[in-house]
Amino acid sequence: MQKKTLFRKDVISWSLYDFANTIFSMNIVSLYLKRYIVEDLGKDDRYFDIPYALSMLVAALLLPAFGAVSDHSTKKKFFLFLFTVTCCISLGLMALVPTSMMVLLLVLFIISNFSYEAGQPFYNSLLYSVADGKDARFVSGVGVAFGYI
């Protein structure tokens, strides 16, 4: 792979999206939201675990169809944009929810996490429009590495 390939706009965009994915999954899903619910609000673990499981169950049921759509669609970027915006808006709204409205917080989390997961098939399928063959493996590795910087 030539060095200039690493600095192409599409490779940088791919890496930035992977960076954002890592921040969402690591910080919101794995670390801070559950702590906020359990430690700050004094709720039981299940207040996080059940909505998370529900969002993943819905994702498990629908993502195979989304994967098929992404394999045959010419609108991969549209679907990726749609799910990304939905994830970001619902995540942003979570910050505005008062502590007394726990149900709304959890509904927004379900929407946000489902949207994050629903964007993955479209994001993954776009890798081969950024690079192909051995270059695709390299670009994917750069995206993952950038996500953990």
Outline the structure in words:
This protein is mostly helical. It has one domain. 83% of the residues lie in helices and 0% in strands. It contains seven helices and no strands. It is globular, with a radius of gyration of 17 Å.
What pattern of helices and strands is seen along the backbone?
HHHHHHH
Radius of gyration based on Cα positions: 17 Å
What is the helix content? over 70%
pLDDT < 50 runs, ≥5 residues: none
Main traits of this protein?
7 helices, mainly alpha, globular, 149 residues
In short:
The chain is an all-alpha fold.
Produce the secondary structure layout:
Layout: H1 3-6, H2 9-40, H3 46-72, H4 76-94, H5 102-125, H6 127-130, H7 134-147
